[in-house]
Every structure is written in C-alpha cells, then in structure tokens.
Amino acid sequence: MDSNLRREIILDNYQNPMNKGLVDDDSYIKIKVNSDNCIDNLDFIIKVSDDKIVDIRFDGEACAISTSATSIMIRSLIGRRIEEVRTILINYKKMINEEAYDSDVLGELNVYDEICKQPNRKSCALIPSKAVEKLLEVLDNEN
Amino acid sequence: MHREDFLMLDSDIVYFDNGATTLKPKCVVEAMDKYYTVHTSNIHRGDYDAAIVTNRLYDETRDIVKEFINCNNSSEVVFTSGATMSINMVVFGYMKKHLKKDDEVLLTKSEHASNVLPWMKLSEEIGIVIKYIDLDDDYSFTVENVRKSISDKTKVISIAHVTNVIGDVRDIYTIGKICREKNILFCVDGAQSVPHMKVDFKAANIDFLSFSGHKMLGPTGVGVLVGREELLNDMEPLFYGGGMNSYFEADNSYELKKTPTKFEAGTPPIAEVIGLGEAIKYLMKIGMDKVHQYEKELKKYLISELEKIPNLILYNKNSDCGILAFNIEGVFAQETSIYLNHYHICVRAGNHCTKMLKDNLGVKNTVRVSMYLYNNKDDIDRLIDVLKNSKDIFKVVL
Asked: Under an 8 Å CB criterion, which residues of B touch A?
C-alpha cells in the first residue's frame, strides 16, 4: 500500500474515529482494555444480538495507532457474525505478529501490515483485538 | 557539566528521561566491574582478602549515605532494592504493627504509585483511612493546606519531597516540624529529590526517608531506607533468612540481628551497593547545591525557549527543579515521544505512575522532560528545534 494513503487512512480514523463516546445501555457488554506499556487505556461497549455484532462504541485516551485501529476494527466488525469476527481477529493478530495470514478477510485493517517495523507500536495496534478477544471470552462463557 | 564521564553521551542522544533513570558515570561502572573481576565475594562471611575488601566497601557505603543525607548514624541506613521496597517495608513492617482502624494517613494525589498503593493495601487490611492534602491550581500545595488536612486522627504524613510529574518541591522542613510538634510520623519519598538537591534527614525531622540508587547515577536494584533508629528497632523485617539472624533452634526460638542487618536477609545486591557508594561520592564531590542550582538554570532556559512555541501546553512552568511536563496541542503524548525519538531525544510519555493526578491536571498523559547535571543548553536547543517543526509530526511517526 502507498505510504501516503496508509498515513491518510490512519490519521483520518485517529482524528475522526468511528463510534467514539459511550452510551448508558445495559444491553451492551462492557470491556476495559489497557496496553502493557501503561499509556493506552480504552473502554469498549459491545452489543451482540442473534449471533451478530450490532454495535461497538469506545472511549478513552490512546495514541494514533490504537485509536485508528479501534475505529477501523469497529467499522470492520459491525454487522458481522461471530464466526466471521473470529476469523478476522485471528488473521489480524497474525498480521501484527508477522505470521502468515489471509489479507483478503482484513479489508481496511491491512493498513497495519507494516506496523511490525515499529515494534513498540505492535501493542497499540493490538488494543482493539484485545477488546474483541475479551468479548469472545464473555460470549463463550455465556454459552 | 561533566559530560565526559558518561559514555552513553558519546552516542548522538539527548537524554531527558532522568526522572525514570539516570545515566551512570564511568567511576560507578568501574567500581562494579572491579567487584566482578577483582574481589568477587559475599559479605560478612569470608576471611580471605577479596572478602575483606568487599566487606569494607559495602559497609563504607552506609557511612557515605549517612554523611550524604545527614542522619544520626550509619545503622539508620538500610539497603533495599529501591524506593518502592523501602516504602513497602515502612508500611507493612512498621505501620501495620503500629496503626489501627480509623487512624488517618495524609497523602497527595500527585504521589507516585509506590507511595499510594501500599497505603491502599494497608487500608484494606486494617482499616486505616487515607486522606489527600488539597492541591492548589498549580498542582502544588502550601503548608497551610497541610495544617488544614490534619485532624486528631492523623498519625502519618507520607509525601514525595519532589513529585515526579509536576516537580514541585515540598517544604519538608516546615512540614517535618509540624509533624514533630503534633506527634505525626513523617515519611518522605525522596526518589526525585535526593538525586537533585541537598536533603537533610535530621533538619527535616524525617522519620522514614526512601530513595533509589538508579535515579542518582547509581545502578539499578539498590535503594535506601533511612529511618530513625528507635523506629527501625521497632519495625518488623518483611524477609527472613541468612545474614539477619543471631541464632535459631529446633524449638522455634530465634533471635534477629540488630538494625539495619535484620532488614537485609540473604545476599544483598553487593555490586550495586558499592556502585551506589561511588555515585554518592561523585555527587558530593560536585556538591548538591551546585547540582540543584544548575538544573534550575536549565529549567529556566527550557521554559523561556518553549514559551516561544505557540502550540505547546506547559503544565508546571513554576516548579523549582529540572522536570517539565507538556503536550503539543491536539497530539497524544506518546506520538510526541515517538517523534522526539526519531531525532534521538529521549523523553517519557504517559501518566508517569501518578494515575490520580488526572483529576487535577485534566489530562491523563503528558510528555515529561526531566533533566540532570549532564544536560546542557545544546540539548535544550535540539529539543526546541524539533518541537518548532512539529507540524509534520504525523509524517514522521506514522
């Protein structure tokens, strides 16, 4: 991907992130995510209905990479069935961790395919996937 | 000053992360190297030449610390793994034994995690009540705020001498006097002050003083707890084992050694203690008043230059030390630190372990520049040049 386009997508999602701001609604599952390096700190709320992600919202202070990755991840997951979410999550994590992955399922999330060049930012890119992982744990425990 | 003593500065870096840890002068590294290559041995148990040398250097460091912070005698100096361990020893070794339910402990919201969480845990365990001294608009507090916060139930005041984000220098000498008059125990976290200015244990009426070696040119893994001897004598060790006992028998009887040895179970960080001794000797040779004065001048220059850049928010212009917290308007602190790293300028972004300060500061994360004696105006000029051109920050960091 052209580096200017990559930067433009990341910056646009950082400065105008999708679904930033929480709502007070008990039908959402609440999830907190912190980065291991102690600076990114985001709260997520996720609504699941009929085995599909209906809505995801988030709030908190985080860097350009974790905020934009969260925004793009939210756009990629809303409307997806849980099995599709699992597939996206697995491939996204493989991409960040420099393992073989299927780029076809990741869509716009492919903008982070070179984040491994900045090792200290991998944990930032993994913030939204940590939230989704926690969600899947909650759903698995419910079943 | 003395840049030639710090090998890290031979590489093309500006090191402004001294609040986190400092660089080490050659004399510290050489003293530790010598322990590992010439006189490796354990302490207190050997009769051979190398052990005698090691013993002498280890014990001398206690005398050096005593002279450096002016406590009553060397037995008031306990070696720990760092300020965090020192404070935990005070809270769980002394306070747990002497405080009771509803006793009040005064802290501030700008304390480092290491001077908050142990107290929270103790509150959970025995029901002490933690109260916070009010901070003023500039995030510092006056002696009057302290007086207002004291009640009949106040048993302890535990504060940093200099805080690690705002860098405000608290008047420990007046606060210590108030504590002594009112029979309140006075605990001082000296992690950010002892490396940078003269701290007088006796004159400030301190009961327990904690600090770390690695923030004052010394090695990691070693720190100090200085406590008034009568209090240390009445403090329980947190660790039991070799070196700290006089005897133990099969009928469960045992006797511990005297202060400070009873607090140093097992093999201590010998090389680190020797390195710390060298670091303190190095600082004393320069003179702590000179170090503090020099850092204040650097801070003044830093502020005067930063104020010329329009899009910066400076949080603690007035604090009397080499620490400055700032943000570029609209830019997350971590982006700024990654940007500065691109130009080999080392700073720290984050909440700096003061997670409660956000209530007052209105922002969780800041970029912190923390200076030390080897920084100079050229370092500041490099930072200023890079910050002046920060409009392209995202082209650099993304």
From this structure: 332-335, 338, 349-351, 363-365, 394-395, 397-398
Indicate the CATH number for domain A3-142: 3.90.1010.10
Of residues A93, A102, A91, the one with CA closest to residue A130: A93
Query: Which pLDDT tens digit goes with each residue over B355-382?
Result: 667 666 667 789 999 999 999 999 999 9
Quote the tokens at residue B30. Answer: 């050489």
Mean local confidence (pLDDT), B58-62: 97
Interface of A with B in 46-75 (CB under 8 A): 61-65, 67
Structural domains in chain B?
26-285 (3.40.640.10), 287-397 (3.90.1150.10)
pLDDT value at residue A121? 87
Q: Please give the pLDDT value at position B318.
A: 87
Q: Considering CB atoms only, which of A11, A38, A61 is closest to B394?
A: A11
Under 8 Å between Cβ of B336 and B327: yes
Q: String of b and e for B214-241 (b: at least 16 CB within 10 Å)?
A: bbbbbbbbbbbbbbbeebbeebebeeee
Contact list, A114 vs chain B (CB under 8 Å): none
pLDDT of A51 over the 70 cut: yes
Amino acid symbol at B368:
R
Question: What ranges do the domains of chain A cover?
Answer: 3-142
The confidence score (pLDDT) of residue B352 equals 64
A-B C-beta contacts closer than 8 Å: 37
Residue A136 contacts B where some CB pair is shorter than 8 Å: no
Q: Is B179 a catalytic residue?
A: no
